[in-house]
Amino acid sequence: MTLSTIKDIKKIFLLTMIFTTGCGNKPDLSRFDLVKGEQIYNNTCIACHLAGMSSAAPKIGNQRDWAERINKGMETLFNHSLNGFNDMPPRGGKPNLSDEEMKDAVAYMVSKSW
Fold first, then answer.
1. The model's pTM
2. How far apart are CA 106 and CA 104, in angstroms?
3. Which comes out higher in pLDDT, residue 54 or 70?
C-alpha cells in the first residue's frame, strides 16, 4: 500500500465515524422516562416528526436531521419544545403537556435519532 492509499483509508474511516456516530457526545438520557416519552411522541409529536409529515421538523431516527440539533445541547432542544421554534408551536400545540412530559418526549426522540 502506498502512503496515499493509507491517507485515503484514514479519511474514509473518519468520515464513516462522523456519519455513523454523530458529532459531539451522546447525551445522558437516563433521568428521563423514555416509555412515557414514547407515548407522548405517539400521541402528539408524531404528527410532524414522522418522515414526510412536515418538511421542517427533524424526523425521528434520522441522524442527519438531529445531529446539529443534539450538538446544541438538550437544554436548547427542551427550550424549543417548550416555547416553540420556527414552525413548531409551544409544547407541540398541546398546552396541557407538562415540562417533564415535553422533556421525556424530546429525550425519546433523541434516543431514537442518535
1. 0.78
2. 6
3. 70
What is the CATH number for 32? 1.10.760.10
Let me know: does 82 contact 52? Beta carbons within 8 Å.
no
Spatial separation of the C-alpha atoms in residues 65 and 59, rounded to whole Å: 6
pLDDT digits (tens, 9 = 90+) for 8-35: 666 665 555 555 545 567 899 999 999 9
Rounded Cα distance, 92 and 47, in Å = 9
Q: How far apart, in Å, are the Cα atoms of 72 and each of 1, 12, 78, 86?
A: 40, 26, 11, 16
pLDDT at 3: 61
The single-letter code of the amino acid at 1 is M
Backbone angles phi, psi at 59, to 5 degrees: -85, 130
Question: What's the pLDDT score for residue 55?
Answer: 80
Query: Is 10 within a domain?
Result: no
Tell me the residue range of the domain where 68 lies.
26-111
Q: Per the structure, how many domains does the chain have?
A: 1
